[in-house]
Specification:
Shape: globular
Strand content: 25-35%
Largest sheet: 4 strands, antiparallel
Structural class: alpha+beta
């Protein structure tokens, strides 16, 4: 199987099955982190979980009301910060090499759609 790379304004996602220890890639405009298969699976799950949580609480919030929501696994941590309509996303790896990155609000919808298109498991 060949390398798959999806990208949009402020985000990048990649998958290369023969990528060795780090077959996945997540990134922003000027940064990228390679992920293990376990980190990738957690990133997919947590990104979806975070999006669902924000969608559920959004009707209860005033449009300008600030939110801060985090989800975590053994391998990584994600934080959404902003309003339900426009939040930034921060990623921190909890294992091994330790790394972090973030996406601005305008990248989140594309990142979520890109993740849905890039189904590898």
């Amino acid at each position: 199987m060949e390398r798959i790379l999806k990208k949009g304004e402020g985000w990048r996602l990649g998958w290369q099955p023969q990528g060795g220890a780090f077959p996945a890639l997540v990134g922003g405009e000027d940064w990228a982190i390679e992920l293990t298969a376990a980190e990738w699976a957690d990133f997919q799950r947590l990104l979806m979980q975070l999006g669902e949580a924000i969608a559920q609480i959004a009707p209860e919030l005033m449009p300008e009301e600030h939110l801060n929501c985090t989800v975590e696994s053994e391998t990584l941590w994600l934080e959404a910060d902003g309003t339900a309509a426009a939040y930034s996303l921060r990623l921190i790896l909890n294992t091994g090499r330790r790394a972090e990155g973030n996406w601005p609000p305008q990248a989140i919808a594309g990142l979520q759609q890109g993740m849905q298109m890039l189904t590898v498991f």
